[in-house]
Amino acid sequence: MPTFTGEEAQEYDNRITRLVPGYELLHQLTNAQLQTTLSDDAHILVIGAGTGKEVLALAQINPKWQFTAQDTSSDMLDIAKQRFAKQGIDSRVTIECSPVDKVKAKADAVLCLLVMHFVEDNGDKKQILKSIKTNLKKGANLYIADLMRPETTFERESQLNTCAQLGLTEAGKTQMGHNLEREFYPLDRMRFSELLNECGFGIPKLYFKALGFSGYVV
Ligand SMILES: C[S@@+](CC[C@H](N)C(=O)[O-])C[C@H]1O[C@@H](n2cnc3c(N)ncnc32)[C@H](O)[C@@H]1O
C-alpha cells in the first residue's frame, strides 16, 4: 500500500485527481448530502482525513460544524493541520493521529473516503467498521467510498485509460495498474454489504460510481 509519508504526502493533492476519476465529484456529492441532512450543531468524524480535503470543504459549507480528523499518517495530518490554520478553522477540528479504534467521538456523520480499500479483509476491515459504528450516533450515516472488485473484464483497463486522459504519465499508469492488482483489497458488492451488516450497519445505498470506485451511504 502507499505509505502516505514524506514525498507521497507532499505530492498527494497533485496526484490523487489523476488516480481517482471523479475524485472532485465524489467529494462534492458526499458534501451535498451532509449539507442536506445535518443541522448546525453537527459533529463530523472523518476517517482517513489525509491532507484535509473533506474538512476544509465542509467547514466552508457550514461555519458551525465541528470535526474530528483521524488518520494514521502524521505526514498527511501535518499538511492538513497547516491548511486548517490557514483557513482559520483549527479551533473547530480535533486531530487524531491514531488507529480508528482509539477514536472516541459521538458523530452525526462519518466519512471514510478512499481508505478502506487499503485494509485487508482478514478481520481488519471489520475491526475498523465496528469502531466507526461505535463512534456514530444512533441513526447517523456513514459515507464510504472505495475501489471495488471489477464488474466487467474491461473496467480496470478503462479506468487506467481515464487516468491517462486526466494526465497520468505512461510510467504512472503502469505503476497504478500494478498497485490496483497488488496493493488494494477491493470487495465485491455482496461481500461489502455482508461486512457492513456484520458490523451493525443497514443496507448500503450507492450514490457514486466511476468505473472501479463506488461511494455508498449507509
Ligand atoms: C487515498 S487517501 C484519502 C484521503 C482523503 N480521504 C481524500 O479523499 O483525499 C487515504 C488516506 O487513508 C489513510 N489511511 C490508510 N490506512 C488507514 C487506516 N487504517 N486508518 C486510518 N487512515 C488510514 C492514509 O494515511 C491516507 O491519508
From TrEMBL:
Residues 45-141 form the Methyltransferase type domain. Coiled coil: none annotated. This is Carboxy-S-adenosyl-L-methionine synthase. Keywords: Transferase. Its EC number is 2.1.3.-. The keyword Transferase applies. The gene is cmoA_1. GO terms for molecular function: transferase activity.
